[in-house]
Amino acid sequence: MTSPAPAPRARLLLTGDELLRGFVQDANSGFVAAQLRELGIELDQVRVVGDDFGVISDALVEALERDEVDLVVVTGGLGPTHDDRTSEAVARALGTSLELDEAALAVVEARVRAYGRMRTPEEVATFTPGNRKQATLPAGATWADPLGTAPGYAVEAGGRVVVVLPGPPSELRHAWSGVARTPEVAAVRARVPARHERLIRFWGVPESRASQALVEVGHEDAAAARVTLCARDGELEVSVRGDDAGAVDALVAQLDGALPGSAFATDDHRSVVELVAQGLLDRDWWLATAESCTGGMLGSLVTGVPGAGNWYLGGVVSYANEAKSELLGVAPELVAEHGAVSEPVARAMAEGVRDRLSAQVGIGITGLAGPSGGTEEKPVGTVHLGIALPGATHHRQIRVPGDRETVRRRSCVIVLHELRRLLERS
């Protein structure tokens, strides 16, 4: 029996002195990895290099000389200044020339005119060298319409493909959507063998328990079915993929049975916010939020979902006790007796914001995010969550380990999952 062909492999090369020096944090590798996975292309390595022309070129040559690498994705270094030399490095690595693309130049010039306030020929002329630089690409490259002034592009060389994307995350994501449709990338995609992949997502299941469940059902990774675990803020994503659809489906069913009641989504990539949104829309309910320690983070997560205006009325950041009383109607004596970080106050916040904004559902979050302010009775990481639904108000106390940001973020995720579960039961 002939073994299935291996999936095409990719290498990701992130360029930029600002990444190496810690001025900017990488915001692109996760996106690129996810996009490659969707295409069925395996990412085998991520490498970060500075803006040095020779280093970029050598890294490209090394990647292209590896027999198992079919695609190299390079990010950054497409700007108009002297230190943006990625295209030059790509041309050198491929042994080809750089050529001015007149159509790309017209687009770059139009973008510059749209972004600036240039009114004189002299002002326009100052941008001309940079415009031409950004429109000068390796010979044979297929470019995509840019969001800014840096066109992303794909170029083929000896059966391998180099994709070059601008560094700013919004520009990179826009460029990828165009470059992924180029003939060069399509040729790599055509080499992707048939694979069957399923996703099952668990809430409150640690990786160690999932690993134990895999042992219990007798699973061992093989070409027929292979498992990848990814834990994030209390969620556990289990990706099962392989050449045997029956084996993949059977393993998903076995895991669901081994971890009963823990799976909250199967073959569903929607975030917990989107799942909550659907539950609210199905009931024609509106949500309102009251936040103390999370300082509006929950509202930001909620409004990050397109269409949130169809189910989210708004929120109140009531950090001070006076704000809890004046904006939400939390009785001062309740705070005095139990403290701001307490079950009664979380319940009152949830009910107060629900009633003040005329919603059906209210969420209240109050806690100690740290790093100071904790006590023996209420250590840092203590958070009280209140959820007011029609007819009943629910509460949960949690203790989240970690720094201030972790406590705040995890509290938001937990309260959303609590609301999701309540909606599923109602």
How would you characterize this protein structure?
- With 426 residues, the chain is an alpha/beta fold.
- It folds into 3 domains: 181 residues, Molybdenum Cofactor Biosythetic Enzyme, Chain A; 71 residues, Alpha-Beta Plaits, CATH 3.30.70.2860; 154 residues, Maf protein (Alpha-Beta Complex).
- Helix content is 42%, strand content 23%.
- It has 16 helices and 17 strands.
- A 6-stranded mixed β-sheet has the order 2-1-3-8-7-6, sandwiched between helices. The protein has a 5-stranded mixed β-sheet with strand order 14-13-15-16-17, with helices on both faces.
- Helix 3 packs across helix 4 and helix 11 packs parallel to helix 16.
- The longest helix is centred in the last third of the chain and has 22 residues.
- It is globular, with a radius of gyration of 26 Å.
Notable traits:
alpha/beta; 5-stranded mixed sheet; 16 helices; 6-stranded mixed sheet; 3 domains; 426 residues; 42% helix; Maf protein; Molybdenum Cofactor Biosythetic Enzyme, Chain A; 23% strand; Alpha-Beta Plaits
